[in-house]
Amino acid sequence: MRVILSINNLRAVYLVREGTIKACDGVSFDIEENTVYAIVGESASGKSTIIEAMTLTLPPNSKILEGEVIYNGRDLLKLSENELRKIRWSEIALVPQAAQQSLNPTMRIIDHFFDTVYAHHKNWQNNEIVKKAEELIALVRLDPKNVLYSFPHQLSGGMKQRVLIALSLVFKPKILILDEPTSALDVLTQAYIIQLLKDLKKQLKLTLIFVTHDIAVAAELSDRISVVYAGNIVESGPTRDVLKDPKHPYTQGLVNSIMSLISDPEKIKGIPGDPPSLLDPPSGCRFHPRCTYVREECKKEKPPMYSLNSNRKVACYLYK
Ligand SMILES: Nc1ncnc2c1ncn2[C@@H]1O[C@H](COP(=O)(O)OP(=O)(O)OP(=O)(O)O)[C@@H](O)[C@H]1O
């Protein structure tokens, strides 16, 4: 399958009073067209930073230090603001985390569609915008007559999430990136959003990239997965293979703790210690202080991504 987006050695930091937070530290992965890619990790591991760096939507106190984001043969990090505007939303759309709160409480849903279209300088007629909004709201299985003329507070969390997905599709993007699309939703609504995303992917031939802390959601929705620990990708591969036979000691700990939670909560082992501060992360492999297999080289040099086969990669000296 064709690679549609290629991220190479992406590094981004936040500048804060105490120093620099190294939240995305040399991250690389390829996204194949018409697949679903999950970026999985614990809270504060740098998942949002990765996708915000990829889409150049990081906050002002951040800095991209190096890397490439190759889309259609061009490095997005080198484009002008004007060139980027043509790609954002029209080719690559992002639904940020907690986006439900980003709906303006004083505006009806239809007004959000008007605003989005105007913000991208599209000279669509108002009736065209209404027609498009109706079509998209129906596509996410909501009733356009009710929903388009409602205010956000009149909708449930799941309905707002579906409205945001509809809004993100307004210019028919090829890639849809979602940050925690199912968090803060009850289990049934989560399942509904997962099914909806699967159907939209098929129907619209979308490539989906999403961030989640929930391995069950990644297992359900994604074809491929990257596991993030403290700003680094530690393992990538087909979701089923990675979860069935995790290779990196961190992924092993993560998967084991979830499996024991499901099968026998009494036996949860967890991973000893806590994730490090990204202000002053450990040298070498950032997981080494918590790793049972730690050896000298792990403390010195960050391990490269070793290819186990054409499909799987792991950043651990055990696989040198
Ligand atoms: N605007 C910011 N300024 C300073 N530090 C930030 C900023 N945004 C994120 N961080 C820090 O960067 C690190 C990575 O955060 P990030 O939001 O990317 O993680 P995450 O894995 O997406 O977590 P979560 O699932 O909780 O959102 C954290 O230590 C976080 O506190």
TrEMBL record:
This is ABC transporter ATP-binding protein. Keywords: ATP-binding, Nucleotide-binding, Transport. Residues 5-255 form the ABC transporter domain. GO terms for biological process: peptide transport. GO terms for molecular function: ATP binding; ATP hydrolysis activity. InterPro entries: AAA+_ATPase, ABC_transporter-like_ATP-bd, ABC_transporter-like_CS, Oligopep_ABC_C, P-loop_NTPase. It comes from Dictyoglomus thermophilum. The keyword Oxidoreductase does not apply. The keyword Translocase does not apply.
